[in-house]
Amino acid sequence: MTTTTRKSPYRQGILDAAPFILMVIPFATLFGVIATEAGLNIIETMAFSIVVIAGAAQFTALQLLQENTPTVIVLVSALAVNLRMAMYSASLTPYIGAAPMWQRALCAYMTIDQSYLVSISKFEKEPDMTVPARVAYFMGVVTPIVPMWYGFTLVGALVGAQIPESWALDFAIPITFLAMIAPMFRTMAHVVAALVAVVVSLLAAGVPYSLGLIIAGIAGMMAGAQMELWLERKGANK
């Protein structure tokens, strides 16, 4: 394999992930602002982003901490929100599971919503990619995203409340997830899972400690799984 060939997937990964920078910047900045408003100092805020590197779980934990939620509930809620990472890992294993341990560990740490979405789409479209090419592509995808997450978390923590409310940085949260979720609606099971989760989350909005989101997530996964089984049975009976 030539040097050019090895570098090509990495460069392509950077290009494919570049549009997410527009969403990561306000998302990370908002987290930095909210974290400092919640009482975390800059070191604690940065440690939170570097260790956890999962925006949804970080925002969930912060919100619960501000509500003086018991620590056990905070941990359980954050872990529940991040359960999707286990599914991401299982989905990526057939493609990069044969890579060296240190590469798999690095990919595991940097498996986030954006890196999974972009990478799995590429791997499914090009099944003939070699394992080194897949790892290079994956690392290319995280190159413009992860440093931006760290950097703009710091920016948010430093400027804090100085950012005008009129900037409405909180728009980045729904926009980010809508941009990631929409391309994943590839089967009826995906659509059913999303619809059930939305309906249940609205019905369970009053559940204490934001546990309604966990209930909605579980309900959505169960509905999606049942739809897949129904479709499989229907296909088998044809």
TrEMBL record:
Membrane spanning stretches: 20-40, 46-65, 72-96, 135-160, 167-185, 191-224
Keywords annotated in UniProt: Cell membrane, Membrane, Transmembrane, Transmembrane helix, Transport
Protein name: Putative branched-subunit amino acid permease
Recorded family membership: Belongs to the AzlC family.
Topology term for the membrane: Multi-pass membrane protein
Compartments where located: Cell membrane
Assigned GO CC terms: plasma membrane
GO biological process assignments: L-valine transmembrane transport
Pfam families to which the protein is assigned, alphabetical: AzlC
Matching InterPro entries: Brnchd-chn_aa_trnsp_permease
